[in-house]
Amino acid sequence: MKKKLLSSLMAATLALGSLTFSPTAAAEILEYVGTGEYIMSDYETPVVAKERAKARAMANAQEQAGVYVERHLQVNNHMVNADVINVITKGIVNLIGTPQYKQTPIDEDGGSYQIVATVRVNIDSDDIDKWFARDAQERETLVEQNKELQRSNAEKDRQIEELKKQIAGVRTEADQERLTMKFESADREFQSNQKLEEGNKLKYERKFNEAIGAYTEAIELNPKNTKAYNNRGFVYSDLKQYDRAIADLSKAIELEPNFENAYNNRGYIYKNLTQYEQALSDYNKAIEINPDFALAYNNRGNAYNDLNQYDQALVDLNKAINLDPNYVGAYINRGVCYIYLGDYERALSDLNKAIQLDPNFAEAYAIRGYTHHMLKNYRRAIEDLTRALKLDPNDAYKYKVRGEAYRALGDEKKAQADFAKARALGYTG
Description:
Layout: H1 2-13, E1 29-40, H2 46-75, H3 82-92, E2 94-105, E3 113-124, H4 125-130, H5 136-166, H6 173-204, H7 208-221, H8 226-238, H9 242-255, H10 260-272, H11 276-289, H12 294-306, H13 310-323, H14 328-340, H15 344-357, H16 362-374, H17 378-391, H18 396-408, H19 412-424
Antiparallel strand pairs: 1-3, 2-3
Helix pairs in contact: 1-16, 2-3, 2-6, 3-5, 5-6, 6-7, 6-8, 7-8, 8-9, 8-10, 9-10, 10-11, 10-12, 11-12, 12-13, 12-14, 13-14, 14-15, 15-16, 16-17, 17-18, 18-19
């Protein structure tokens, strides 16, 4: 019974993408100007060279905005690392108008140019806080996807610099043709990654169909863009189109057999489909490829929770926390594991830590409230569930559990009000 009730509560609280977040302070709209320079060689087209300069200008603007984002998070007691700050900033930065370009010849024959791009962007401080209304898995996945994209972009930049070094060695038409083809290939890969980044921002904004369109364009530009397959697959998962999701993630793995994130993401889908053997196989492979992959340990531990294999779950969740001491989702999942084991003291310790790290995470308050309910600390259960409902006011099951706490305290009027609210929101249990 305990597991059934907790599973219902977690199923409700995991749907955090749909909640309305209430900011703690008045919103601020801030603007930034970013500049970026790119030196275009004889072998490149002005269109792509301008895109490269624009990408650098956007990175410059995002870096400036990131300083504010970090300060805002600190003021609101959010303990996050640089990777999270980078993802949030990229997701909320909006381009104002069109970029401006200045193109200056830097050699006598006019074949090489210095291109300087200037962009204006803004951010809304309310959008920073909305990050914490996302499902824990989604947040972790967005961070991993962004880290992959940064690594890929850095590698593409190194390839371009290496190609430019080869220009001096061109002696024959055959050499020229080979180098031209290499630059054209590099341009397509760059443009593919730009579409990938566009898709990531659209996914961040929950414009799922538009994100799928951008990822599809990325694949058309570069059919070997495994990250586009991976990310499109995850969006299909958001849309519950699981066959398509698995097909895309499997394609990413086929193209890149050591792509740990694709294994982890496919495992996550299999787990949600209760296909635990396939899920564990994929998590195992992700961890084999990357033994320091905290997200995969967390997800495998969560799967072991579902399978009632709590000792194995604790091993994995301990590992996830050791690798990332600020991993909110791992503390919550370990707390849930302790609840299943009846170790409420340790469960509360982990849930307290999760709330310390993320004071606006409804799931943590809801599960801590459930724990107090199990311990018959009904007033504290009501306090936590009330806080959870302020963050997530459309969750029927939270009202149901709070109603039970009111009933246990003898306040039948409030209990019936909560039960009625739960029914109005669709609760039928």
